[in-house]
Amino acid sequence: MKVPGRSSANANRCSGADRGGCAINETHTALLQALHDEHAPALWRYALRLTGDDQLAQDVVQESLLRLWNSPEILEQGEPASRAWLFTVARNVVIDERRSARSRREVRSPCVPEESRTDPIDSALDAWVITDVLTQLTPDHRTVIVRAYYMGQSVAELAVELEVPEGTVRSRLFYGLRALRLALQERGLTRR
């Protein structure tokens, strides 16, 4: 592509600093487009996994592709090398962002906040309410709930001990928990 004021040799090879005034050659443009179409979704997922932020992941992908645009020599190394380079650049962009964000957004406090403490009275009241609600269940439902949730027994262990099929144990757990939830709702302790 011929750019006014430049020779054809310079039109095909421009430094990243003066990219605004010249164009990358058509082969590089096509290869860059193909790399974007093929690798941008995977690169975005990778960046999202690193950052946990959708918008920041999009910014990382854009910055990685911009750096690839500014380094056309990477395109000449082939697609596998370009892909590896893109993922490395994305990782480095995330690291740079984290380092700069930490220095800009970190709030220092003169004293460390105290750890939250649980109130023993709340725990005692919770235990009392659950015990009271469990007494309202049928003995079969109460047995499987207590053994499964408080004693940590599996469905298979309960089936062997109670001499009933595993499906019956699951059914008793399901209906027992449902009855437990309804009893707690009647007392106004859970949402409907």
Could you explain the architecture of this structure?
Residues 1-22 have low confidence and may be disordered. This protein is elongated. It has helices at residues 8-12, 26-51, 54-69, 72-75, 79-105, 120-134, 139-150, 155-162, 166-186. With 192 residues, it is mostly helical.
> Low-confidence runs (pLDDT<50, min 5 residues)?
1-22
Order of helices and strands: HHHHHHHHH
Radius of gyration, whole Å: 31 Å
Number of strands: 0
Give the structural class. Answer: mainly alpha
Helix segment tally:
9
Largest sheet: none
Based on CA inertia axes, which overall geometry fits?
A: elongated
Q: Which percent bin holds the helix content?
A: 55-70%
Euclidean distance between termini CA atoms: 68 Å
- Overall pLDDT metric: 79
Strand content: under 5%
Short key terms for the protein model shown above:
about 190 residues, mainly alpha, elongated, disordered N terminus
Describe the secondary structure blueprint for this structure.
Elements (H helix, E strand, L loop, with lengths): L7 H5 L13 H26 L2 H16 L2 H4 L3 H27 L14 H15 L4 H12 L4 H8 L3 H21 L6
Helix pairs in contact: 2-3, 2-5, 3-5, 7-9, 8-9
Structure, briefly:
By secondary structure, the protein is mainly alpha-helical.
